[in-house]
Every structure is written in structure tokens, then in C-alpha cells.
């Protein structure tokens, strides 16, 4: 027991703690996810966040101490997003043929996500900074933070809304698609990438190659369209 306490004290005070905690937790919850037949409610990202959050609270470890090690995993987010381009390259002829339709679908889907979020926040009497922060909820978190800053929102709040949106989409999409009778994997993936950005795309990749490829397309289109159009439009509306 004394050896364990000494090991904990050492790990908790060095960057190794954040990296070790992140990798160990994810491997454990991902193994459970596989054993449970990749059930949406067992999403490894969700449970990793919950477990690590509980560990940090129970141990009294400050978040900056944890992130000093976890940032090594965080850096890999960039290459991971770029890697989504490979399935697109494999389907480049198909994507080129459907380019106009996909762009229009992304524009309508992104506008619907933003309008519905702002309308609900407005109906509940949320202040202006919250309205501006919730608008880019369906864009991947780093871009949502940048958009929120441009339109007068709170970047940290925008990141929270984006992550929650991604989690909700990843957990509920399968049941919603089944209820609506949507069977086409490309349609499922594109819808999931449009509404739930990177977390939804990761879920789509786990389920089917076509779903993952089209989720990546939707993710990229949302980033470009939202970055260009949302700041211009919301300045007039809000």
C-alpha cells in the first residue's frame, strides 16, 4: 500500500499522470465498449470523460496538472481530423458527382441546427452572449470557439455546447435513424457529421466505412460554411 501511495504521489505531480490516466481509461472503456457490441450508450469518449472527471475530483488534482500530460494526446487531434480525408479520397469520384447536392444539404442542415438552437435559447430567455455561444454548436469545438469569439459569444461556453451536441448525436443517432427508417449508410453518416461534427464522425467511422466517409465530408463542409457565413449572418440577426 505504501508503494502504491508513493507511485500515486509521483504520477499526480508530473505530466506523466495526465497521459497515463487518459490512455489507461480509454483502453479500459473501449474494451468494455467492444464487449457490449458497440452500443451507443457505451461510447468510450463519453465514459472516458466521466471517469477521468471523477478521478480528478476525488483526488483533488487540478485540471492544468492533468492537461500537462493529456496535451500529448490533444496534439493528435489535428492529424486525426486530417486522416478523415483518406476515406474521401477513396470516394472522390462519387463525392465530385454529388458535390452540389452535398453542399446544399450541409448548408440547410447547418442552418437548421443553428436556428433551432438559437430559437430554443431565446425562448428560454437566455442572454445575448449565450445565444451567440450556442449558435455554432454543430461545428467542431475549436472552430465553434473561434466563431463564438467573432460574433460576441463566450468561446469556453461554445466549446461546452459543441461537445454536448456531439455526445448527444453519437448516443442517440442510431435509434433516431432506425425510428425514421433511414438505412443508407451515406445518409446516416452525412446527417451525423452535420449535426454532431467530430464526435459524430468518430462514431460513424466505428459503425461503417461509408458512414464515416460521409460524416467526414459533412464535418468539413460545416467548418467552411459556418466559418464564412455565420459571423456575417448573426451580426445582422443578433
What's the short version?
By secondary structure, the chain is mostly helical.
What does the secondary structure layout of this molecule look like, with pairings?
Layout: H1 2-12, H2 16-35, H3 44-59, H4 63-74, H5 77-83, H6 85-90, H7 92-97, H8 99-123, H9 128-134, H10 141-150, H11 155-180, H12 185-207, H13 209-237
Helix pairs in contact: 2-3, 2-4, 8-9, 8-12, 8-13, 9-11, 10-11, 10-13, 11-12, 12-13
Tell me about this structure.
With 238 residues, the protein is mainly alpha-helical. It folds into 2 domains: 2-75, no CATH class; 83-237, no CATH class. The chain is 83% helix and 0% strand. Helix 2 (16-35) crosses helix 3 (44-59), helix 8 (99-123) runs antiparallel to helix 9 and helix 8 (99-123) packs across helix 13.
Poorly predicted runs of 5 or more residues: none
How many alpha or pi helices? 13
Estimate the global geometry from the Cα principal axes. Answer: globular
The helix-strand sequence is HHHHHHHHHHHHH
The percent range for helix content is over 70%
- By helix and strand content, what is the structural category? mainly alpha
Domain module count: 2
Characteristic key phrases:
mainly alpha; 13 helices; globular
Amino acid at each position: 500500500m505504501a508503494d502504491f501511495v508513493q507511485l500515486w504521489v509521483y504520477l499526480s505531480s508530473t505530466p506523466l499522470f495526465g497521459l497515463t490516466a487518459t490512455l489507461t481509461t480509454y483502453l479500459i472503456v473501449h474494451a468494455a465498449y467492444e464487449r457490449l457490441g458497440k452500443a451507443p450508450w457505451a461510447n468510450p469518449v463519453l465514459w472516458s470523460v466521466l471517469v477521468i472527471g471523477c478521478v480528478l475530483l476525488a483526488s483533488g488534482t487540478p485540471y492544468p496538472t492533468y492537461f500537462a500530460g493529456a496535451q500529448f494526446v490533444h496534439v493528435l487531434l489535428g492529424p486525426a481530423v486530417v486522416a478523415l480525408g483518406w476515406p474521401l479520397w477513396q470516394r472522390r469520384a462519387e463525392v465530385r458527382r454529388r458535390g452540389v447536392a452535398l453542399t446544399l444539404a450541409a448548408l440547410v442542415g447547418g442552418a437548421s441546427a443553428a436556428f433551432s438552437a438559437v430559437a430554443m435559447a431565446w425562448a428560454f430567455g437566455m442572454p445575448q452572449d449565450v445565444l451567440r455561444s450556442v449558435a455554432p454548436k454543430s461545428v467542431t469545438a475549436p472552430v465553434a470557439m473561434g466563431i463564438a469569439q467573432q460574433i460576441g459569444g463566450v468561446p469556453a461556453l461554445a466549446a461546452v455546447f459543441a461537445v454536448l451536441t456531439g455526445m448527444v448525436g453519437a448516443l442517440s443517432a442510431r435509434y433516431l435513424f432506425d425510428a425514421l427508417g433511414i438505412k443508407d449508410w451515406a445518409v446516416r453518416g452525412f446527417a451525423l457529421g452535420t449535426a454532431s461534427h467530430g464526435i459524430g464522425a468518430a462514431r460513424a467511422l466505428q459503425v461503417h466505412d461509408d458512414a464515416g466517409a460521409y460524416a467526414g465530408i459533412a464535418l468539413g463542409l460545416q467548418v467552411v460554411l459556418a466559418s464564412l457565413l455565420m459571423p456575417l449572418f448573426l451580426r445582422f440577426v443578433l
